[in-house]
Amino acid sequence: MSSAQYLQPDAASQTAATGQNVTSDKAGTAPRPKRVRLHHLSAAKTEGRKLTMLTAYDALTARIFDEAGVDMLLVGDSVGNVMLGYSSTLPVTIDDMVHHVGAVARGTSRALIVGDMPFGSYEADAREGYANAVRLMKAGAHAIKLEGGAARVEAVRTLTAGAIPVMGHLGYTPQSEHALGGPRMQGRGEQRAQMLADALALQEAGVFALVLEMVPADIAAEITQALDIPTIGIGAGPDTDGQVLVWSDMAGMTEWTPRFVRRFAELGAALREAAADYIASVENGSFPSEDHYHAQ
Ligand code: KIV
């Protein structure tokens, strides 16, 4: 059974012994929560079930991924590169993020929505970070994500004390692109111990999950083993507790994709072909044809 079928109206609805609402298929296998909550993520780690996260920036695609059964939707600041035409995430503002988080929230009913804190919105002042995170939560996020290690402990404590769940992000952190010398693997050699210490510090401060981006697989595996919270990898090998991809990469919307991405479809080419077919059909008069303008 595909995970999308869990969301069909005829799926058996039941209340689990825990009192949480879950849906299951008719055979009663693999119950899935109606709304993914933080405790489902930690249970997945305990049970060894892999977690899935995709980015989403608008209601249309978010609804499709939600129906497909993804656990988490990340309204990433990658919206800057993917949707807004910037060459990095740095220009993205908190207003941009509020706008896109709201759209994703309106399009979904099941996935846990994580809103990214953009560059400059949390680093200097934890209280300012809290005010900005509140804006994302009011727009519909269920949690926020911020980049960085031990330097973010105060921000994480402030946000979690204010009931805002926080996802951490270590490894290659795109907001630090210039400080890190561009997109490259992180955590090798002397950085290894520091990355493990950062991961433990973030867990201790209260993050509920940790993204590991462009980290060698053995280091990601070591961090995953050391933590009680789930790790979500991107370019970090197979041994993290879950995976995240930028949706336009995994769907083949662009010609180039990073080496760690699998293209699960070639939607860019399909869309180009559909647009070219539409243009040719209008120009040659074959669209609209009678069946498109006769009253039903
Ligand atoms: O903004 C984003 O898309 C991200 C993912 C790459 C993890 O932070």
Automatic annotation (TrEMBL):
Cofactor note: Binds 1 Mg(2+) ion per subunit.
Active-site feature positions: 213
Keywords, comma-separated and alphabetical: Cytoplasm, Magnesium, Metal-binding, Methyltransferase, Pantothenate biosynthesis, Transferase
Residues annotated to bind 3-methyl-2-oxobutanoate: 77-78, 116, 145
GO cellular component: cytoplasm
Co-factor requirement: Mg(2+)
Residues reported to bind Mg(2+): 77, 116, 147
Annotated localization: Cytoplasm
Residue span of region Disordered: 1-32
Top-level taxon of the source organism: Bacteria
Coiled-coil ranges from the UniProt annotation: none
InterPro entries reported in the protein's UniProt record: Pantoate_hydroxy_MeTrfase (IPR003700), Pyrv/PenolPyrv_kinase-like_dom (IPR015813), Pyrv_kinase-like_dom_sf (IPR040442)
GO BP, one annotated term: methylation
Biased amino acid composition, Polar residues: 1-26
Enzyme class: transferase
Function: Catalyzes the reversible reaction in which hydroxymethyl group from 5,10-methylenetetrahydrofolate is transferred onto alpha-ketoisovalerate to form ketopantoate.
Protein name from the UniProt record: 3-methyl-2-oxobutanoate hydroxymethyltransferase
